[in-house]
């Protein structure tokens, strides 16, 4: 197997549920799947996050084991064609050298 070249290693994945199972940290994990709850109500919060880890990977930028995990709301919906309390979003992530 050929060694990977220099530069940041980035993982694109549909679900953030793979993050705890990664064999080594990567610079960034870009993921969706949770739709940031999709249906988020005042006081009670989200009905579900479509994740085996509940709200651990709910939405936004999350630091896990020295790596950044970016969970976006996306543009669409899942199962129920409805979105409430979670506006659709698209992220622009710029990677650079470690500080």
What does this structure look like?
This protein has no helices and 6 strands. The radius of gyration is 15 Å and the shape is elongated. By secondary structure, the protein is an all-beta fold. It has a 4-stranded mixed sheet, with no helix packed on it. It has a domain of about 60 residues. It is about 0% helix and about 20% strand. The mean pLDDT is about 85.
Termini gap? 30 Å
Mean pLDDT: 86
The percent range for strand residues is 15-25%
Stretches where pLDDT falls below 50 for ≥5 residues? Answer: none
Apparent shape: elongated
Q: Give the H and E element order.
A: EEEEEE
- SS-based class: mainly beta
Helix share, percent = under 10%
Number of helical elements: 0
Number of strands: 6
For the biggest sheet, the summary is: 4 strands, mixed
Radius of gyration: 15 Å
Cross-sheet strand order for the largest sheet? 1-2-6-5
Overview features:
99 residues, mainly beta, 4-stranded mixed sheet, two-stranded antiparallel ribbon, 6 strands, 0% helix, 22% strand, elongated
Brief overview:
With 99 residues, the chain is mainly β.
What secondary-structure arrangement, pairings included, does this model have?
Elements: E1 10-13, E2 28-31, E3 40-41, E4 45-46, E5 60-64, E6 67-71
Parallel strand pairs: 1-2, 2-6
Antiparallel strand pairs: 3-4, 5-6
């Amino acid at each position: 197997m050929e060694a990977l070249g220099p530069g940041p290693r980035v993982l694109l994945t549909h679900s953030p549920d793979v993050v705890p199972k990664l064999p080594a940290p990567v610079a960034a994990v870009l993921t969706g799947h949770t739709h940031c709850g999709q249906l988020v109500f005042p006081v009670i919060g989200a009905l579900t996050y479509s994740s085996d880890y509940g709200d651990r990977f709910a939405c936004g930028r999350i630091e896990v084991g020295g790596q950044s995990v970016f969970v976006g709301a996306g543009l669409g919906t899942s199962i129920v064609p409805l979105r409430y309390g979670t506006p659709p979003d698209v992220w622009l992530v710029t990677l650079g050298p470690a500080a």
